[in-house]
Structure formats: structure tokens, C-alpha cells
Automatic annotation (TrEMBL):
Protein name, per record: Fructose-1,6-bisphosphatase class 1
Gene3D superfamilies, alphabetized: 3.40.190.80, Fructose-1,6-Bisphosphatase, subunit A, domain 1
Residue span of region Disordered: 20-46
Gene from which the chain derives: fbp
Alphabetized GO MF terms: fructose 1,6-bisphosphate 1-phosphatase activity; magnesium ion binding
Co-factor binding details: Binds 2 magnesium ions per subunit.
Length: 289
């Protein structure tokens, strides 16, 4: 696919997700119960997870130039177009366990120019929708991160060059503390002991990473005892998040290399995820060495 064609497909994917977001938000009402099913990672699905996945699958797979749709909520990819098109990977409702308590959630997407599973170096664009007090979209493409407010009818650009603030303020770390490695725990204690830092953890990766993007800092869902690959999925969460944070001037690591360099084995692979200001990620890699 030529650069111009790829640009047109990215535009359509982004526009489709932006237009679907207010509808997804509205459709959460009445779909907060469990669906009596599990996703391929063994997590209980909410009715809203299944519904949002079907809605996005229908719309994104019918875009001319999209050849694959894949999601955290379904085992197999949908092959929907000629080889050589772009592949879209989504986490339709990131943090959907927050439905019960009515807290922040999001939709995460990555647009790859290779069949999935693919490394993050194949991403041509990435982004997320954040269902907070208002609905916003962050989009990374062509080396720039933009932020939009989605009003329902329009997508209003509110920041045309988002970058991580230089001085880190917030931190959030997932997983149970007894399951952290000694090295990771020692690093966390150091971060916590700095009076310039404060804790933010809301149980939805998108909400927590958006705090880092807004205020500077670090978010991690690390390797755990019993789960050495952590919890988050490389194709649907790790790669798009790492691509967006790196494009905004920050760093990502799986512990020893950028998440974008991690070679996937399977579509639903997990990855230990750490993203944030360069200096904090460098210190983390040193601590985990
Ligand atoms: O998608 C997985 C996810 O919901 C992330 O959004 C979030 O960061 C994490 O799980 C929360 O996990 P836990 O409930 O273990 O804190
Ligand atoms: Mg998720």
C-alpha cells in the first residue's frame, strides 16, 4: 500500500472510531452486567465488552484497505480485505471492570501495516478514546500526538502536539505488591519516597496512562511472580500505548527493551508494560537488570 493510500485508510479508521465513541459511551448504559463468557485471556467479559467489539468489528472491517480486524475480545482475526492492506487491533473497552463502579474506561487501537500478530515497529498510527467526564481522543501518527474532544457531532482538536511534561509527577503500578519482584518493589519505594511524586491508580490502563501523558510520570503493569509476562496484551494494549507515549517524547520498556521491539509469538501474548518519562524508564531498566 502506498503512503497516500495508507494515509487515507488511517483517516477512515480514526474517523470511524471517533464517530463510534459517543455511541459506545451511550451503549454502556444497560450493558454493565457480566456476559457469562470469557475473552481469550481468560477474563470474564461484560456485556459491553462483547457489544463494543461487535460494533467496531463490523465498522472497521468494512473499511476499504483494512485487511484484518483483531481484538482482545475475540480469539481469531477477521480477515476482511486484500493482503497488503492495514490491520487494526483494538481493545474495545479497556478497563471494563470499572463499569461496575462507574469509573474511567477507554477504547485503544493500533493500526499496523503488517498482518497480526506484528511488532510495534509495524504501527503506522495508534490512539485511544478516554470515556472520562468528557470523551477525548489521543492520536499518534507521523511523529506527532494530537488530542481531541469528541462532542458527539464533532472531533475538536484541542492540542496539536502533545508531549510528556519534563518533570514527572504521577505514578501508578499494577499487580499485587506481594507478586512484584524484589527489584521492582525497591524501584517503586524509591519513586514513592520522592516528595515530588504522587500516586494515581484507577484500574483502567487508559485512564492511568493518560494521567502520565498529562502530568508526566510512570505507569507500569510489571512482570509478576506466577505471571512473568504481566497482564496487559502486546497487540491491543502494549504496542499502541508504547507507540503513543514514545511519539509524545516518552519511553517504554518490557524491562530490557522498548515494547515496540518485542517480537510477538501469538495474537494474545502479554507483555510486562512500563511507560513514562525517559529518565524514570532508564532508571527502571537499570533496576531490573
Ligand atoms: O485491560 C486490562 C486492565 O483492565 C487494564 O486496563 C488495567 O490497567 C488493568 O487491567 C487493571 O488490572 P488490576 O485489576 O489487576 O489492577
Ligand atoms: Mg484492556
Amino acid at each position: 500500500m502506498t503512503g497516500r493510500d495508507a494515509g487515507r485508510v488511517v483517516d477512515e479508521v480514526v474517523e470511524t472510531i471517533a464517530e463510534s465513541a459517543p455511541e459506545i459511551r451511550q451503549g454502556l448504559v444497560g450493558r454493565r452486567e457480566d456476559a457469562d463468557a470469557e475473552n481469550p485471556s481468560g477474563e470474564t467479559q461484560a456485556e459491553a465488552d462483547v457489544w463494543a467489539d461487535e460494533l467496531l468489528a463490523d465498522r472497521l472491517s468494512s473499511i476499504d484497505g483494512v485487511c484484518q480486524y483483531a481484538s482482545e475480545e475475540r480469539l481469531e482475526t477477521i480477515d476482511c480485505g486484500d493482503e497488503g492492506g492495514l490491520s487494526v487491533g483494538v481493545d474495545p473497552l479497556d478497563g471494563s471492570s470499572n463499569l461496575k463502579s462507574n469509573n474511567t474506561m477507554g477504547t485503544v487501537f493500533g493500526i499496523y501495516d503488517d498482518p497480526l500478530p506484528a511488532p510495534g515497529t509495524s504501527l503506522v498510527a495508534s490512539g485511544w478514546v478516554l470515556y472520562g467526564p468528557i470523551t477525548t481522543m489521543a492520536l499518534a501518527r507521523d511523529g506527532v500526538v494530537e488530542k481531541y474532544e469528541l462532542t458527539g457531532d464533532d472531533r475538536n482538536l484541542v492540542d496539536d502536539d502533545v508531549s510528556l511534561p519534563d518533570d514527572p509527577l504521577v505514578y501508578g503500578f499494577g499487580g499485587r505488591v506481594p507478586h512484584w519482584s524484589d527489584e521492582f518493589e525497591a524501584y517503586v519505594r524509591e519513586i514513592e519516597s520522592d516528595p515530588d511524586h504522587k500516586l494515581r491508580y484507577g484500574g483502567a490502563m487508559i485512564g492511568d496512562v493518560n494521567q502520565v501523558l498529562t502530568y508526566g510520570g510512570i505507569f507500569a503493569y510489571p512482570a509478576l511472580e506466577g505471571n512473568p509476562r504481566g497482564k496487559l496484551r502486546l497487540q491491543f494494549e502494549g504496542n499502541p500505548i508504547a507507540h503513543l507515549v514514545e511519539t509524545a517524547g516518552g519511553s517504554s520498556t518490557d524491562g530490557s527493551q522498548s515494547i515496540l521491539e518485542v517480537e510477538p509469538d501469538e495474537l494474545h501474548d502479554r507483555v510486562p508494560l512500563h511507560v513514562g518519562n525517559d529518565e524514570l524508564i532508564e532508571r527502571l531498566e537499570d533496576a531490573l537488570e
